[in-house]
Amino acid sequence: MSTNAKLAAFAHxxxxxxxxxxxxxxxxxxxxxxxxxxxxxxxGESVWSRPLLFNVTxxxxxxxxxxTATGIVSRHxxxxxxxxxxxxxxxxxxxxxxxxxxxxFIFEPPGETHTLVVHxxxxxxxxxxxxxxxxxxxxxxxxxxxxxxxxxxLARYKKHCAAVGLGEAFVKPIIR
Length: 176
Description:
By secondary structure, this protein is α+β, with helices and mostly antiparallel strands. 15% of the residues lie in helices and 39% in strands. The chain has one domain (43-174): Jelly Rolls (Sandwich), CATH 2.60.120.10.
């Protein structure tokens, strides 16, 4: 049997899988390699975010963060954990001596305050972040200057999608 025939047989069997329970939500599958640039929301001078999932029932979100120049991305505190996986480039925190490079996984514990910077080693970054709760933006002394939670980030992305012609409904498939 050829490889294509095996894949077709697998797809047919896989398609007949046991259905989801009646109240379960469907999976989300995002193929981001060929993204329309309008899907990326500007977060700063050379920083963009590509939301992949907004979980409004548990208060967290998953996104790609892309920066195209060396420098500060943001200074913030996390009252909930964050995980990240570096897909490209290099970045780190001014408050730590490590550098995240392609393939680096990070776990940030609740209470962590840091200044995220794109490391000059590569001059850019692309990282998958899972924010398990809000982000508290702080100044150089650690005093809160703003915040973002799943609802404010979602509203911001809806507004962005409307402004670039994708429409607010574009966001619906990634809300759970």
